[in-house]
Amino acid sequence: MAKTDKELVEATLGGENQAFAVIIERYQRLVFSIIYHYMGSRDEVEDLAQEVFLKVFRSLGTFDTERSMKSWVSRITANTCLDEMRKAHRRRTSLFSDLALADGERIEHFFTQFNQPHQLTEVEVEELFGLLEKVMGHLNKKDKMAFVLRELDGLEYPEIAEVLETTELAARIRVSRAKKRLHEELHRILYSQGNLTDG
């Protein structure tokens, strides 16, 4: 029978290195996903993931085993991403107008098929995420993280609130605000480039 998170933490603190390897295995997919969706670059995933798990290991003695380890690991991952963004001072595009016409055409193509996801190929889905990440770069950092955690990584609002160290209501507001901004800006890109008409 698989050990609980609490048992794995206690075993790790007791000197069982293999127990921490199980923690990594259990949460690496979540950590990789948050980093990739937030940072928008595969190149950074492995290095930042190693940094995250190093922080997890060093902080394990302070973890309250009565709480959710998923939320705790997510919070460490989120903070690592936020710190990296602050250090880098970079955004994927400086202005929405920097998106090429071809980007707008691809966004339109995906949106026409959005209600029929089975029609999208794996390559098209990857492109769609790439385009969304460009626009997501303009969101407030914590709004973007809330959106990533909820819409791309599937965390529940109480978990998001714990990750961002805020209230559940504030987490809901951040996600809602991010979705509204993304919808407005994607709509603006499509119509401003003459791909669609309001009529």
Description:
- This protein has 199 residues and is mostly helical.
- The protein has two domains: 1-90, RNA polymerase sigma factor, region 2, helix turn helix motif (Rna Polymerase Sigma Factor, Chain: A), CATH 1.10.1740.10; 92-199, Arc Repressor Mutant, subunit A, CATH 1.10.10.
- 71% of the residues lie in helices and 0% in strands.
- It is built from nine helices and no strands.
- It has helices at 5-13, 17-39, 42-59, 69-88, 101-112, 122-136, 141-152, 157-163, 168-192.
- Helix 2 (17-39) crosses helix 3 and helix 5 crosses helix 6.
- The chain is elongated and about 60 Å long.
- The N and C termini lie far apart (61 Å).
- Mean pLDDT is 79; it is low at 90-101 and 194-199.
Topology, pairings included?
Elements: H1 5-13, H2 17-39, H3 42-59, H4 69-88, H5 101-112, H6 122-136, H7 141-152, H8 157-163, H9 168-192
